Amino acid sequence: MPTRRKAGFIVFMVLLGGAIGTLLGKLIGLLMPAGVAREFFLANGTWAVGPLTLDAAVVKLTLGLSFDINVIGLIGIGVAVYLLRWVFN
Fold it and tell me: Quick one: which of 61, 60, 63, 59 has its CA closest to 51?
């Protein structure tokens, strides 16, 4: 696999692992009774860049990127990285 396609595939798989893990964490948190364990699964961190506005007088473009991830999402990223190591070796 060419290096450029390989890097894109790795980024896609890591993001997919984080997304699936975050969704699973939210689902588990919603199914659990109220308490510390539920708060653990529903707690998340947000990392954001932007919004960045590019003003070219005629056109104004605003860009932003935000990641919202919980503990199970981090585990999903770890599983994705492990599977990628297994696939590429």
Answer: 63
d(CA 69, CA 71): 7
The per-residue pLDDT for range 3-25, each reduced to its tens digit, is 777 888 899 999 999 899 989 98
Bridge partners, residue 69, by sequence: 45
**Residue 44 three-state SS:** strand
The per-residue b/e assignment along 38-71, b for 16 or more CB within 10 angstroms, e otherwise, is eeebeebeeeeeeeeeeeeeeeeeeeeeeeebbb
Gap between the Cα atoms of 7 and 73, Å rounded = 21
**pLDDT for residue 1:** 62
**Mean pLDDT to the nearest integer, 53-62:** 88
